[in-house]
Amino acid sequence: MNSTASTQNAAAAGAAPTPRSTSRTKEILGRVWAAPMGRIAALMIAALILVACCAELLITHNPTAQILSRTNEPPSWLGGEGGHLLGTDPLGRDVFSRILVGLRLSLLIGFLTATATALIGLTLGLLAGYYERFVGGFLMRMADIQFAVPFAAVGIALAAFAGPSVVLLMLVLAFWGWTNYARTIVSLVQQTKRLDFVTAARTTGASPVRILVRHITPNVLGPVIILWSTSVGTLILVESSLSLLGLGVQPPGFSLGSMLADAQKTLRLAWWAAVFPGVGITLVVIAFNLLGDALRDAFNPALRSLTENDPELT
Amino acid sequence: MLVHLLRRLALVVFVAIGVSTLLFALVRLSGDAATLLVPADASPEVVEATRARFGLDQPLAVQYLNTILANFTLDFGQSFMFGLPAAEMVFARLGPSLWIVLPPLIISLVGALSIGIFAALRPTRLSGRSLMVVTFLFDGIPYFWLAMLLVLVFAINLQWLPATGNADFSALVIPWIALSIYGLATLSRLTRGQLLDAFTEGHVATARSKGISPARVLLLHALPTALPPVLAWLGIQFSLMFSALLILEPLLNYNGLGALLVGSVSNRDFPMIQASVFCLAVLITLMNILMDTIVRAVDPRLRTKAAH
Question: Which of A72, A228, A309, B39 makes a 20 to 30 Å CA pair with B287?
């Protein structure tokens, strides 16, 4: 998250002299915070990150200790013994403590992969939009192919050949997700590069790299940040779903998704071990979807005024 | 229209070549292809014989061309697990998978249109808003977790439905519900958003100001404007649902294409993997072309563009 925030600042700072663009970032963040939806999202995400970071202070039991005398213990408020707030799983591990610690890995996977995808997608989208004919044509055809192949199929095949590894999975996910970004920003790049200020920059001898980074990137950053926000939740979902096939996080590590996978086979014995991690995933996804919506609303007036003021853009 | 269709069909060929290339690279990168093409316990003689039979001792470029040609004739070799041509197995399992995916797709569309229209007509009223809050919450629920919850409630606790398998019709109910909700949540929000946008457009305002009845304005003016993105998303939803099958079918022990692919991967049944990924990609592309063609037929703006 930090890296995205700083890229956002850096890129926005490149758009124009610094004071104006920091105020732009502030304006967007202010608009997010002013909307009820955005405020709920911000608070939810802050709470989730705080819980994930301080999990050690909040847990009631050792999340990896297997208490074999207390397997499948129901939640304490349903009469379970041993003070397990959300019960224990079939190996006698405390579900509540595991959710708090598992949340950390889930969030980390979501953040890192989403950020890597956004950077790759932004770069390729910029290139595809700027060099329309060859690079753009080639990349967009690649996107068409990729679109037809479900990621799960690739992830599964890859895990079969290279062995299950969550780092590999994240890498492939990061490279697989670029199409969403590229598809979204390519036309925006094509429009922006025809604007007067870009032509002016080119006339003064600015290199393509400089034009792309300093002049075009700030104008396409809005959709990128919106996509990034919603993709955090989606990526956590993908990791969870692949965990169900045994291809996600491998023991002794665990995420919310791999907890769900562990509990899936013993649904009859300990429903709480499957239900509560799922509630956790749902909360994370809802929080980031909310943030995405709030960001969309916050960016839209800006984007709309951009297109309305400039006939060339419409 | 015809030119457009031909161009889109060329995309199928393109996708087929692309996917074949991807699979070709994946096998070659993961080591000796000959050992992948025979069962794990095969003797060295069998490996050598396979190498010769599939031309794996030839230059890479020749191998590549041969693979592409073989894929286009749907010749993926024999499945190790079933001892049958892999393509035949894929076609046998395609039916059950379409049975899981198509009804939820139709339910999603019909349901999303009703919910979306209802909510778009009452954007500020409590009923419209609360409906959107509900769809938003459902949008965050993972479909695989939802399926697990449904199994828990309807199969384990109430024992109304079988938990797993595809013995009969009743086994389809749980995946249908899970996938319908998966599709409904996104699609109804999209429908509402597109309709609200359409209401602000000039031609809808004109129709309204002429005194045309609200129902007519909605059906003849606003809906045609709002529908194309919704239908386009339906194509994407189809591919998302097929991806979901890779998770749901093993979870529910349902014998479809998803379970076949996952099973063939864990058994390293390479011809089977190749056949199922290839056919899946072609199927998804065809579905998207179908949706694209329907969108073109429905959207008056694209029609006029094509005429010029």
Answer: A228
